Amino acid sequence: MISIRQLRYFVEIVAAGSYTRAAERLYVAQSALSRQIKELEADMDVLLLRRDAKQIELTLAGQDFYDKARKILDDIEQAVGQARQIAVGGSGVIRLLHSTSVPLTPPLGPGLNLALQGFPGVSLEISQASSEHQAQEIEEGRADLGLARLPVLRTHAHVEMLELYSEQMVVALPQQHPLARRRGLALAELREQRFVSLPHKARGGLSYLVAQQCIASGFFPVAARATSRKASLLSLVSAGFGIAIVPRSMREISVSGVLFVPLKDEDFCSPVALMYRRDAPALVAKFVAAFVAQQKLFADG
């Protein structure tokens, strides 16, 4: 069984460039260091280091293992530090991911802010990621929470998905588009239009949902000459490449030159879900409860 000590010794040897210098830095006997590395290689059945009296050299397998071992040790150090902070004062960092199509406009942004007020020692580290990527990151422990557009196609054993609300959809059009002055549009009327966002075969989220609804209306979206699944799709609309169907909240982050027309298909809504691990740490679980309570207050108010 590979131990954390063996990983530390291996990484230190590579960083120091020799067994002698590594032994000095670690305050251990060189013989003990050498024995641990031999046991590590024996357990893995892989040669990691070539060494002589003066220097060491990583094998190809050793280089790959070194990169991963260093990351594992960094993750452990971060996890231990955060656990100690939480133990002494309920403080820590919660890593939150959100889709570009889930802007932190009301009710999400204010809800996060209000929830944080009950956790004075906690801060949020916020990044953007696709719905599918969020689920993977949470499953593998690299993120704590996700705000995603459903559907998420791939299931993960440890990830809980809690639907928060659904949004009506609107059509984003270039300002000079013939349909931009309409008061409403039916999805079927967009059959001949070019879409700047198309689904990836392995990803869910907004573009997948839009394509499914278009298929239900008898057509598949025609691709524009420039496409994007990110927030930049509104820039492509503004530049006149085509149109996009987006949630109503994306009007709040729009660029100039884009007009939004409501869809007449009122049953076409886009759900937003909160994702987290079922076995989340106590701090994350408490924050989830506080945030969900805030979302319910917004919905009721």
Explain the overall architecture.
The longest helix is centred in the first third of the chain and has 30 residues, at 60-89. The mean pLDDT is 89. Helices cover 40% and strands 21% of the residues. It has 9 helices and 11 strands. The N and C termini lie far apart (56 Å). It has 2 domains: 4-87, Winged helix-like DNA-binding domain superfamily/Winged helix DNA-binding domain (Arc Repressor Mutant, subunit A, Orthogonal Bundle), CATH 1.10.10.10; 92-301, D-Maltodextrin-Binding Protein, domain 2. α1 packs across α2, α1 crosses α3 and α1 (4-16) crosses α4. Belongs to the LysR transcriptional regulatory family.
Could you say what the CATH architecture of the largest domain is? 3-Layer(aba) Sandwich
Determine the structural class based on helices, strands and strand pairing.
alpha/beta
- Uncertain segments: none
How large a portion of the residues is in β-strands, by DSSP E?
Answer: 15-25%
Task: Please report the total strand number as a whole number.
Answer: 11
Main attributes of the structure:
301 residues, two-stranded antiparallel ribbon, Arc Repressor Mutant, subunit A, alpha/beta, D-Maltodextrin-Binding Protein, domain 2, elongated, 7-stranded mixed beta sheet, 11 strands
Task: Draw up the topology in text.
Elements: H1 4-16, H2 19-26, H3 30-44, E1 49-51, E2 56-58, H4 60-89, E3 92-98, H5 108-116, E4 122-128, H6 131-139, E5 145-149, E6 159-174, E7 194-195, H7 205-216, E8 222-223, H8 233-238, E9 244-247, E10 258-262, E11 269-277, H9 282-300
Helix pairs in contact: 1-2, 1-3, 1-4, 5-9
Pfam family, one: HTH_1
Protein name: LysR substrate-binding domain-containing protein
Domain HTH lysR-type: 2-59
